[in-house]
Every structure is written in structure tokens, then in C-alpha cells.
């Protein structure tokens, strides 16, 4: 439905806000609105009588200035709705039990339910341990470490999987040279298995062309990641590694809130600036009450093939300092190794040769078995 400067359905003709549209846009032009207003849940094509906005406040989300009963809005009298400022005596998030408090943001007495609700797997799936691999910034080798950890645990006889949550920059399928598309029936999506049996799900496994860009906004990407968890048939997985996008935005927050993450692995490179950004990722994990299992410093040094001397190409390592500061006992350093890069480029990561993460994986395996991950 197109909305013009005649106003939104139900708005009084003489309303002082008649020239305002959704989110404050000028209504001299025509706009189409498909989504509900974040403030009060009213879609632009709906009758505004369902909004319940007080006539002296006006809804910032949909531009309504109604004289209706506020009882339909559901905003706490103490908190006030960030979208429309109404104050009826109902739970802050518009439900009888306060179960949608996660979307409200108000700290009020009506917040009786947990803000975070873990998304359940489908009934045919089973995943024991979910570990997120994160980084404060891109380009530090997070996908490489995700792949290597999955390969190491698979070599030890565990059933492993990778959920590629980096929707706009997926690299996991190429790392394993997986080119076929995932399939589905009316109930579930089937992951694609690598040569050694590691189960994968990535947006690239659903695209007609792997080079097609994914031009989605944050909430849509986050929803897709949730579906990778809930709608994919994960068969008897012992260890699932989630390859996260860099930073602390929508998708990391969604994964931390929706998936039963048992711990995170932080990936960094040696530069001091990266160290500062890594601290942001570690602090986010602390705020979400998720333990940091360890830190991996990628491109930590170059070992000369002639003299076997180690040269810190990107500067002095700070990983030990960060680990000590945040009481993280598990640290690993990965060198700059042309053979490792070649294995990734050829999609042969399952054949990589190197023991850099073996001790690291030993400790994580022990933490998962004993449930001794430390926050």
C-alpha cells in the first residue's frame, strides 16, 4: 500500500502530524511500508486504531497521533515506549507474561522473564558442544582456525560440524572444496558433508552462484543464521564450530543469545591495534556470560626454513598479555606458513600438517568433558 501526504489510515485529518510519515520521513513523497513499527507494532497499511498512541506524544515509528485508548499498546507505565511514549498499565513488551522483554530495552518491574531464549534444534538433530570462533576484526584467519579445529576434532574420532555464520563473507565451503548445494525436504535442510565427514552449512551452499553477493540487512542475516541452527538436520554432532562474522554486531549477538554456546575461541593477529579490538570481543563474551576457552594468534611469526629462526613479521606478540589480563589459560600461536595457505586455497584443509593447535584442542576437549570452562 502506498502512503501519501493524506496521512495514515485512521489519523485525524487535522492532526498536527499529518505531514509526518514512518520514522519521520516527509510525506510529500509516497512510500511503501511492509514492516511493523518497531515502537508499537503497527504496520503502516493497518488501521491506526490498533496503535494506541497517546495524542500528545505521537509515535516516532509510524507518525500516528491518535486519540485512542492506550490499552492496546502494552507499554509499561513506568518505562514508557521508546517508539510512542504511551503509558498504559500492561507489561512493557506487550505480552501478558513479559516474554518479549528482549525487544523492549526497558528495565522495569514487568521484566519477569529471561531476556534470552535459546532456539531449539529440530527433533531429529543432536549437538553436544557448540563453540563460537570470533574475532574483533576481519582478516585475521578466523575461518582458518574454525576449519582447523573441526578437522582436528574429526581426526580424533568426533563427529564435527561447522555452522558458517559469516553470511556476507562465507569462505568455509571453498576451504573444504565443497561445491554442491545443500538440499532440503518439507521438514529440514540437509548439510553438505566434506570428504572426511564434517557437516557444513553455509549461505554459499544455498546460492545458485557462489560469487553472488548477499545484500541483506542485519536482522535478515541474523534470521538466516538462526535457521541454520533450527532447520538443518545436524546428525549426532559432538563438536559444532560456529564461524562468526567479525565484530560485535547483530549476528554475534544473535548467536550468543539463540544458540547454546559453551565457549568461544578468540582469533587475533599480533598487531597492537588488533589486541585492543580483541579485548572488545572478550568483553562482549563476558557481558553475555559466555566463557572464553582460549585465544589463537594467527600469523604470529615466520619460521625460516633455512635456520629455523622465528621472525615476528607483524610485530611483537601481545597474546600472552591479553590472556593474562582476562585470565584465559589456553593460548596458541599459528605461524605464517605457505603450505597452510596453499591447502586452504586448494580446498584441502583436511590434509593440513601441523601440531600448532593440538595442545590447544586437548585443553578444550578436557574443558568440554568436565564442564570446567571458566567465565
Q: Summary?
A:
By secondary structure, the protein is α/β, with parallel strands linked by helices. It folds into 2 domains: 115 residues, no CATH class; 244 residues, Rossmann fold (3-Layer(aba) Sandwich). The chain contains 8 helices and 14 strands.
Give an overview in words:
With 375 residues, the chain is an alpha/beta fold. It has two domains: 1-115, no CATH class; 127-370, P-loop containing nucleotide triphosphate hydrolases (Rossmann fold), CATH 3.40.50.300. It is 22% helix and 14% strand. It is built from eight helices and 14 strands. It has helices spanning 142-155, 172-175, 218-230, 250-258, 272-287, 319-325, 338-345, 358-370; strands spanning 2-3, 31-32, 127-134, 160-164, 183-184, 189-190, 192-193, 199-201, 237-243, 261-268, 292-297, 302-303, 310-311, 331-333. The strands form four sheets. An eight-stranded mixed sheet has the order 7-8-4-9-3-10-11-14, with helices on both faces. A two-stranded antiparallel ribbon has the order 1-2. It has a two-stranded antiparallel ribbon with strand order 5-6. Strand 12 and strand 13 form a beta hairpin. Helix 3 runs parallel beside helix 4 (250-258). The radius of gyration is 25 Å and the shape is globular. The termini are far apart.
Amino acid at each position: 500500500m502506498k502512503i501519501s501526504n493524506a496521512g495514515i489510515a485512521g489519523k485525524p485529518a487535522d492532526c498536527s502530524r499529518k505531514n509526518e510519515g514512518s520514522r519521520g520521513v516527509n510525506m510529500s513523497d509516497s512510500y511503501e511500508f511492509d514492516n511493523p513499527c518497531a515502537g508499537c507494532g503497527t504496520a503502516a497499511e493497518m488501521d491506526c486504531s490498533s496503535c494506541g498512541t497517546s495524542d500528545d506524544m505521537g509515535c516516532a515509528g509510524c507518525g500516528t497521533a491518535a486519540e485512542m485508548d492506550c490499552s492496546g499498546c502494552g507499554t509499561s507505565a513506568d518505562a514508557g515506549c521508546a517508539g510512542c511514549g504511551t503509558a498504559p498499565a500492561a507489561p512493557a513488551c506487550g505480552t501478558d507474561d513479559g516474554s518479549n522483554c528482549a525487544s523492549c530495552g526497558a528495565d522495569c518491574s514487568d521484566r519477569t522473564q529471561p531476556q534470552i531464549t535459546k532456539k531449539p534444534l529440530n527433533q531429529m538433530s543432536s549437538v553436544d558442544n557448540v563453540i563460537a570462533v570470533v574475532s574483533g576484526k576481519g582478516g585475521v584467519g578466523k575461518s582458518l582456525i574454525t576449519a582447523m579445529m573441526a578437522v582436528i576434532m574429526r581426526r580424533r574420532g568426533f563427529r564435527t560440524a561447522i555452522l558458517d555464520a559469516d553470511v556476507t563473507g562465507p569462505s568455509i565451503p571453498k576451504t573444504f572444496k565443497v561445491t554442491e548445494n545443500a538440499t532440503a525436504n518439507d521438514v529440514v535442510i540437509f548439510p553438505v558433508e566434506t570428504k572426511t565427514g564434517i557437516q557444513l552449512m553455509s549461505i554459499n551452499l544455498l546460492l545458485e552462484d557462489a560469487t553472488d553477493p548477499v545484500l541483506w540487512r542485519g536482522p535478515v542475516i541474523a534470521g538466516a543464521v538462526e535457521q541454520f541452527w533450527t532447520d538443518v538436520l545436524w546428525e549426532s554432532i559432538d563438536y559444532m564450530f560456529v564461524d562468526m562474522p567479525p565484530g560485535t554486531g547483530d549476528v554475534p549477538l544473535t548467536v550468543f543469545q539463540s544458540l547454546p554456546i559453551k565457549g568461544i575461541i578468540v582469533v587475533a593477529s599480533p598487531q597492537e591495534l588488533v589486541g585492543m579490538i580483541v579485548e572488545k570481543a572478550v568483553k562482549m563474551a563476558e557481558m553475555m556470560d559466555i566463557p572464553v576457552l582460549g585465544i589463537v594468534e594467527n600469523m604470529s611469526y615466520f619460521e625460516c626454513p633455512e635456520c629455523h629462526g622465528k621472525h615476528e613479521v607483524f610485530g611483537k606478540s601481545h597474546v600472552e598479555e591479553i590472556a593474562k589480563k582476562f585470565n584465559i589459560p589456553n593460548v596458541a600461536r599459528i605461524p605464517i606458513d605457505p603450505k597452510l595457505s596453499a591447502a586452504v586455497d586448494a580446498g584441502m584443509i583436511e590434509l593440513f600438517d601441523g601440531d600448532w593447535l593440538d595442545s590447544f584442542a586437548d585443553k578444550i576437549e578436557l574443558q568440554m568433558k568436565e564442564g570446567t570452562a571458566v567465565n
